[in-house]
Amino acid sequence: MKFDQSGVKALMDITPRPELVFVRGQGAWLEDHLGKRYLDFVQGWAVNCLGHCPPELTQALNAQSELLVNPSPAFYNTPSMELAKRLTGASCFDRIFFANSGAEANEGAIKLARKWGRVKRNGAYKIITFDHSFHGRTLATMSASGKPGWDTMFAPQVDGFPKAGLNDLDSVRALVDDKTVAIMLEPVQGEGGVIPATREFMQGLRKLADEHGLLLIVDEVQTGMGRTGTLFAYEQTGVTPDIMTLGKGIGAGVPLAALCAREEVCVFAYGDQGGTYNGNPLMTAVGVAVFDTLTAPGFLEAVNARAQQLSEGLLALSAKWGMKGERGTGLLRALILDRDDAVAMVDTARDWTPKGLLLNAPRPSLLRFMPALNVTAEEIDLMLAMLDDVVAKVRA
Length: 396
Ligand SMILES: *Cc1c(COP(=O)(O)O)cnc(C)c1O
Hints:
Blueprint: H1 5-10, E1 22-26, E2 29-32, E3 37-40, H2 43-46, H3 55-65, H4 78-89, E4 95-99, H5 102-120, E5 126-130, H6 139-144, E6 163-164, H7 169-173, E7 180-185, E8 188-189, E9 195-196, H8 199-212, E10 215-219, E11 243-246, E12 257-261, H9 281-294, H10 299-321, E13 326-329, E14 332-336, H11 342-351, E15 356-358, E16 360-363, E17 366-369, H12 377-394
Parallel strand pairs: 3-15, 5-6, 5-7, 7-10, 10-11
Antiparallel strand pairs: 1-2, 2-3, 4-12, 8-9, 11-12, 13-14, 14-17, 16-17
Helix pairs in contact: 3-9, 4-9, 10-12, 11-12
C-alpha cells in the first residue's frame, strides 16, 4: 500500500506524525501499510488495556451492534446499568455518569464539585489542582491542568484552579480559602512523567479535605481499570475519595469514560448534565466485557507479576547504561535517563528494522511504558532486548 499524501493534506495538522499508516493490530503488535510490524508499548496511550482488537472487545461490539446501538440517553439501557452496577460494586462510589472521553468525565467532575459548592458550601467553587498535572483538552480541563502555558493558551482561561505542588501538603494547605470546594489530582501523574502521589500525601489530603469540608477528586483516567495493579489506584492509598473519573482502559480502545461519585455528592438536578452519546449501549457493552476480563480470577495477579518483571528489567538496563533508575506503579512505568535523548530513542525504536518498537517520551529524559495489561512475559523480554539495542545505537 502507498503512503497517502493527499490524505495527510486533508487532515487538520495538529501533531507531527511519522510517515506511516497503521492498518491492523493484534495483541501487542501493530502492522503498517508496508507490512512492517511494531511491538507496541504505548497501546494508544495506556488505552488498549487488552491489546489491539482483543476478542472480548470485538465480540461485545458485534453482539451489541446487532441488538441496540442508540435508544438515546433519555431512556434506560441494559449494558449501561450493568456496567454501573459493576463499578459501584467494586468501588466506594454509589453512582455513575458515563461520558465519551476522559476530559468530558473530568468536566463532569468539575461541574459536580461546583454544584455541590453552590448547594452545600455557600458558593465555594475553587478546585486546587497540581503543577504538571494533566486532566484533558477542553477549556476547563486545560485550566485545571498544570502544564506550563496551558492556562493562557486559549485565554481567557476558566477561573478557579489554583495550583499546588504534588507531594507537598503545605503548598495545598496554603491555597485553601473559603471559596475552595475540592482538591483534584491523579494518583500517579501520567503525562507529567509517571510521578506517584505518596500514600502519606494522599492521606494528608483526605484529612485536610475533611477539616475544611472539601471534596477529594481522583482523576483515574490513566491509573484506573487495573493499570496500577489494583482495579483503582486509590485502593493502594488507604483513602476514600468523593469523586473519581475513569477513561482510557475502561473502553479498551472505544470512547468510553465514567464519572463516579458518592451518594452525598450527587447533587445534579435534572438538566445539569447529559450528552447525546453518554451511556450508549454499544460502548458500555464493551465496558462490561472489559470489566469482567480485568476482574476475572488471576488477571490482576498477572498484571503485578508483569509489572515486577518490567521494573526489574528496566532497573537492570538502567544500571548497564548508567541511567537514573525507573519508577511507576503497576504497568505504568518510566525509565529515567541520564540525558535528554528520550525522543531520539523513541524515533530509533520505531524505525528499527525488520521490527519496530513503539515507546513514548513524555519528557526529554524519560521513557514511558504502558503495555497492554495482558502483555506476556516473552513480550516484555523482547521489548527489553530491543530497547537495549536501541540505546546502544543512539549512544554509539
Ligand atoms: C488521558 C487523560 C485525560 C484525558 O482523557 P481524554 O480521553 O483524552 O479526554 C485526563 N486525565 C488523565 C489523567 C489522562 O491521562
